Amino acid sequence: MVPGKAKARVFALFFLFLLISCSEGKECTNSPTQLSSHTFRYGLLSSGNDTWKSEMFAHYHEDDHLIPTDDSAWASLLPRKVLREEEEFNWAMEYRKMKKNVQSSSAGSFLKEVSLHNVRLDPSSLYGRAQQTNLEYLLMLDVDNLVWSFRKNAGFATPGTPYGGWEAADVELRGHFVAMMYASTHNETLKEKMSAVVSALSKCQDKIGSGYLSAFPSEFFDRFEAVQPVWAPYYTIHKIMAGLFDQYIFADNAQALKMVTWMADYFYGRVQNVITKYTIERHFRSLNEETGGMNDILYKLYSVTGNSKHLLLAHLFDKPCFLGLLAIQADDISGFHANTHIPIVIGAQMRYELTGDTLYKVIYSFVDCPI
Ligand SMILES: *[C@@H]1O[C@H](CO)[C@@H](O)[C@H](O)[C@H]1NC(C)=O
Ligand SMILES: *[C@@H]1O[C@H](CO)[C@@H](O)[C@H](O)[C@H]1NC(C)=O
């Protein structure tokens, strides 16, 4: 390669990098574009109107973003800047940095939760009838149809037909469902059905072999990590993880705990990769796309496994550009997409309850009070 040319390229890329960091440094959410609404995004993606799509996705500056391959080429051109090999990213250090100034004590006594197994609704009440309707709906769902996209994604044969709506095979958000119904009804027909879903999903996870489990390909996460347009893949992953975790908590399914732990390990590897190859800012910037309650489920998982990796990963989903505003009790937190940000606050509360980290009490109380 001609050295002068290489130098010019390094400079151009570096300039581009500065430009991107300056223009997007303060971005904290994918609103105000209407893309935050799943209904809107569904309409957009299924419209076939490319003009409209490119208008709506313009804020990603598609041409400016480095694709993962370009990005690593850039990183190896600037080895001293980002990737000092002698200073391999130190996770224990990163964790201590995040914990700095945190007074870690037991959070204190909270109201004691009554097990769902011990609560029954009066069947003639409005709530009892609503629960019965929901139970009957869940029982109508067919296992093969429900796991159709998961099997397809794992390369298995796909008996049945995929459901439509959010579960349609061409919807990027496909593959999310959760369950607590069993604990409050002890309906054994439902239990058999849930167990069949968990074991079908387990086979898919084994076949893929990395811990990844989803109804869409892991390539969606390449786009997420490259800050390219993609439809909230962690939002869906959170639902799957929370559903599996609940299968363990409410239905004693030990297999489901193994599965959700393996998923956490997989995503730990992905986030670690983003931070070591690029920067932690890049990881935090990717969180502008909706991530559901990833922090919440990882805190809950940590409460069962006691694995500090799960705690660290949970912290890494505590979206700082949003929780920071709550921590300083900023005057104006309007304009944030509720479905994206309320789950993050719930996760912040879980952090306080588990770790006694008082800053997080300040954070969630600030949201609790005005509402
Ligand atoms: C496509 O979207 C553009 C921009 O929103 C709009 O002006 C145009 O009317 C749309 N075309 C069709 C065929 O709906
Ligand atoms: C589960 O609930 C459905 C709907 O109410 C009912 O038909 C079925 O008999 C129940 N199964 C068991 C094992 O009780």
UniProtKB/TrEMBL annotation:
Q: Which residues form the Non-reducing end beta-L-arabinofuranosidase-like GH127 catalytic domain?
A: 118-363
Which branch of life, at top level? Eukaryota
Keywords of this protein's UniProt record, alphabetized?
Answer: Signal
InterPro entries with a match to the protein in the record: Beta-AFase-like_GH127_cat (IPR012878)
Signal peptide positions (record): 1-25
Q: What is this protein called?
A: Non-reducing end beta-L-arabinofuranosidase-like GH127 catalytic domain-containing protein
